[in-house]
Amino acid sequence: MPGGRRSGGAHGARSGAAPGDTAVATLPVALDAMGGDKAPAEIVEGARRAADEGVSVVLVGRPDDLGDTAGLGVVPASEVIEMHEDPAQGVRRKKDSSLVRCAELVRDGAASAMVSAGNTGATMASALLRMGRLPNVVRPCIATPLPRLGREPAVLVDAGANAECTSAMLVQFAQMGAAFASARYGVADPSVALLSIGEEPTKGNSLVKETHAALADGAGVRFSGNVEGRDLLPSAADVVVTDGFTGNVTLKALEGSLRFIVETLFTVFGTDEGTRAASEVLLPHLLPIAAQLDPENTGGAMLLGVDGVCVISHGSSSATAIRNAVHVAHELVVADLVGRLAAAVARTATAPAAV
Predict the structure, then answer these.
(1) Model-level pTM?
(2) SS (H, E, C) the chain
(3) Mean local confidence (pLDDT), 9-34
């Protein structure tokens, strides 16, 4: 079996793994070396950093393109699904792509998890088609962290996997989002809110109203009601639920706003002698805050609902972001995220019908 600097175990990160299972935890994380704007150099460097810190990693891609891997294992994959390609067609046509091979390594028990900064849709399709869905899950969804200064992040779900949803799907997203918040951030009983245009149960479109009624009626989560977009930073709720279209627009609006604020502050600090003097006092206090808000430090988003751990990194990920993503993937395997997700959706009877 190809491996990283440490290897071992015979079982992948499937839904039957137990928390802290050493056999699973020592399997390598499969890293798509060809995915992302800065691949493969930054991807390989991020893998090397994670491996130096004790996480086993195996690179998947074209060996001749990877350069010095410092002894990391490499699984050859001759094809690459580019950012502009149709996700489903790319996965079906390019069966020897780095993304597909990563998912197959997890499916076959040769890797504990997969990480990619490549085509997001193709990453989801690869994981879904090769790993499969967990029992009772209608549609996988994407969970991404929302920063909360001085405390663990909140979780936004769905952040882009499903543009059109039913209320039953959103209920499952709430269940899986809460399980993720517990596994990732150690929140014992996460509060769950529904993104809407007002706090009242009567506000929102038909989807939001139906979902509010279903969550309020009891869905195995601690539902705290509606939350408005202006209250997402910081979010009072540990998990914020919405459809994938709204979630993706919301996430990108927040990222752009934070970037604008940070860039504006640094521009002002260089205006004249007075602002430069002020910056010498303020920067030591502002830089740690900026680090908490930087997406590079979050480890990426998580695909929930497939039978394996899959971390989706930003397309512009640097070596730092990849190193963090590999660590997150490993930690979620140890925390038995997949088992927790399976249990969360199983607690509320049969799966709703997909549309």
Answers:
(1) 0.87
(2) CCCCCCCCCCCCCCCCCCCCCHHHHCCCEEEECCCCCCCCHHHHHHHHHHHHCCCCEEEEECHHHCCCCCCCEEEECCECCCCCCCHHHHHHHCCCEHHHHHHHHHHCCCCCEEEECCCHHHHHHHHHHHHCECCCCCCCEEEEEECCCCCCCEEEECCCCCCCCCHHHHHHHHHHHHHHHHHHHCCCCCEEEEEECCCCCCCCCHHHHHHHHHHHCCCCCEEEEEEEHHHCCCCCCCEEECCHHHHHHHHHHHHHHHHHHHHHHHHHHCCCHHHHHHHHHHHHHHHHHHHHHCHHHCCCEEEECECCEEEECCCCCCHHHHHHHHHHHHHHHHCCHHHHHHHHHHCCCCCCCCC
(3) 64
